[in-house]
Design a protein that fits this description.
This protein has 10 helices and 2 strands. The chain has a single domain, classed as Growth Hormone, Chain: A, CATH 1.20.1250. Helix content is about 75%, strand content about 5%. It has a two-stranded antiparallel sheet. The chain has helices at about 5-10, 15-20, 20-25, 25-30, 30-55, 60-90, 95-125, 140-160, 170-180, 185-190; strands at about 130, 135-140. By secondary structure, it is mostly helical. Strand 1 and strand 2 form a beta hairpin.
């Protein structure tokens, strides 16, 4: 894709954040744990799409990249909101200010170092080219597989979280897909 197209795709980031409002409202009703489980599961699917694009199985069409970018922004906003809410629920009131100061600094330093470390890893994996049928395992597809693995680990660890008064993930999915105002989308889905 050209530079103008890439800039256009990344300039839609504010829309992705606004899209999190429809699911973010359910945080108080269901808790952070079901939202995190939902987001990590969808993120793994999203990263599978990026892996297939990087591996040459699917072409990087504008529509596909827009869907992948939009869902990544939506999920990042939801995970950030859910993590902050979870910290507010679990941390005792005494010392909460100090915890949030440490939490914010640690988060921002990690977010600053992550691209540098992933970039170094991509440089190390540059000579890798393994072809299986129409899929090529190269440094970019390996990157997306490793990130999907880290989200799989986060999903597993999230199941072990103890959040008082958290709802079930099944109830959240039922609310999103069946009871929500967006249920008219299900009517468009072909019945089997």
């Amino acid at each position: 894709m050209g530079d103008a197209t890439i800039l256009l795709l990344t300039s839609t980031s504010f829309v992705r954040g606004l899209g999190s409002l429809w699911l973010g409202m359910r945080l108080d009703r269901f808790g952070s744990k079901p939202i995190l489980i939902f987001c990590f599961g969808i993120w793994i699917i999203n990263l599978a799409g990026w892996t297939l694009v990087a591996g040459g199985v699917m072409g990087p069409t504008l529509a596909l990249i827009l869907v992948l970018q939009f869902s990544m922004g939506l999920l990042a906003a939801l995970v950030n909101i859910a993590n902050t809410r979870l910290a507010m629920v679990l941390i005792p009131e005494m010392g909460r200010n100090h915890f949030f100061a440490i939490y914010s600094v640690t988060l921002n330093v990690t977010l600053g170092l992550a691209p540098i470390l992933w970039g170094l890893l991509l440089d190390v994996l540059a000579p890798m080219r393994i072809v299986w049928g129409s899929f090529e395992l190269n440094r970019f597809s390996a990157f997306f597989l490793l990130v999907a693995g880290s989200f799989g680990l986060a999903l597993w660890l999230t199941h072990r979280l103890h959040e008082p008064q958290a709802g079930r993930t099944e109830d959240l999915l039922r609310d999103i897909l069946i009871r929500s105002p967006q249920r008219f989308w299900l009517r468009l889905w072909p019945r089997v």
